[in-house]
Design brief:
mainly alpha; 2 strands; MetI-like fold; about 375 residues; single chain; about 0% strand
């Protein structure tokens, strides 16, 4: 049992780190939030770099502007790009990592060599990866001429990071409906899953949350949060949002670099499954496919969740790979991290850049905090 003296010594040892984290992490986060609620860099009468600049408090005006003003379509496009990039990047890394891990688990000859080869891209920085793949995805060379060089076929004519095609187009005003449907589907799935596992209390909570989501949508409470676009007149067209095809090359490069990381996580999880469980399943008549499906893969669920959380965190903060491959001015590949750079360090619009950074922090928090809470709860239950 720990006594008060041990706790006091531990607190004193941690105090310098806590002070530094409080100042250089949470203090700067607070400063960013405060700056995002001012007009620093937005008021033409107050040069942003002047020593006597006056920063007036404007509340949530910057957030409203970047979400609703027609001239701020870059930010909304960046949010859409981040959504598609995150989904495809996470799914691609998990799928590729799982396939590589399962192949290496077949005790192939030279496993150590292949494992090193698959892990090597992770040792590169995103800047190096972006530079390499930018060369490989040039319209007149690289990947596009491989079919011609290898098989004598016609070269690929896809423009990759220079493409202007938009797939799965949708209107920005319909996003609340899509979010409601997605939230309801997820909660309904959880309710059925909990009910199947006879976790009735959790199932009731999921059903209640699904009902609340539907009531919020039916009562049009979304209109209070999701303000309409500020169009100058009814004839002004608004370009539809969607999956910009220029992101395909960036997603391929990102998956190429991080799939080795997920492979390492999965191969460690697979090797952690006791061989006795596999042998018992084989004795009971399970094929090798059933051994993986019923024994091995269910044991990997916590690892898959951890990989998805880490990859989602990386994708939300992505900056260097996109900067190296497409540059900061490509409207089809813009992400929030690039806007923080261009608005803050090019335009000196520090308040707007801070607002974008705070929104990014909010999305990262939505991913990280529930995961940390579940992990802490699980560790406490194990400690009991």
């Amino acid at each position: 049992m720990r006594n008060n003296r041990d706790r006091f010594i531990a607190f004193v040892m941690l105090l310098p780190s806590l002070i530094l984290v409080g100042i250089f992490v949470y203090g700067f986060i607070g400063q960013a939030i405060q700056t995002s609620m001012t007009d620093w860099g937005q008021n033409p009468a107050q040069p942003p770099l002047a020593a006597t600049v006056i920063k007036s408090f404007v509340g949530l005006q910057n957030y409203e502007n970047i979400m609703t003003d027609t001239l701020e379509f870059y930010f909304r496009n960046a949010l859409v790009n981040t959504f598609f990039f995150t989904v495809l990047f996470v799914l691609g890394c998990v799928a590729a990592g799982m396939i590589l891990a399962l192949l290496l688990d077949q005790k192939v000859v030279g496993e150590g060599f292949f494992r090193t080869v698959f892990l090597f891209p992770m040792a590169l920085s995103f800047v190096v990866t972006g530079t390499i793949w930018r060369w490989m995805l040039q319209p007149g060379g690289g990947v596009n001429i491989l079919p011609q060089v290898l098989f004598g076929l016609s070269p690929i004519e896809f423009s990759w990071i220079n493409s202007r095609d938009v797939w799965l187009p949708f209107e920005w005003g319909n996003v609340p409906a899509y979010l409601t449907m997605a939230g309801f589907a997820i909660l309904a799935f959880l309710a059925v899953r909990y009910a199947t596992a006879r976790r009735w209390r959790a199932s009731r909570y999921a059903v209640l949350a699904a009902v609340v989501v539907l009531l919020v949508f039916a009562a049009r409470l979304w209109d209070v949060v999701w303000l309409p676009l500020d169009t100058p007149d009814a004839e002004t067209p608004i370009a539809p949002k969607g999956f910009n095809a220029a992101l395909v090359g960036i997603i391929i490069a990102a998956v190429w670099q991080m799939s080795g990381y997920t492979m390492a996580m999965f191969i460690a999880g697979i090797r952690g499954v006791p061989e006795e469980l596999r042998e018992a399943a084989r004795v009971d008549g399970c094929s090798e496919f059933d051994v993986y499906r019923r024994i091995v893969l269910p044991q990997l669920n916590p690892i898959i969740l951890s990989a998805m959380i880490i990859l989602g965190h990386i994708s939300l903060k992505i900056f260097d790979l996109v900067f190296a491959m497409a540059g900061p001015d490509n409207a089809k590949t813009v992400v929030p991290g690039l806007l923080v750079y261009t608005e803050g360090f090019r335009e000196n619009a520090f308040a707007k850049a801070s607002a974008i950074a705070v929104i990014m922090l909010f999305f990262v928090t939505l991913i990280i905090v529930p995961y940390l809470w579940s992990q802490l709860r699980e560790s406490r239950s194990r400690g009991r």
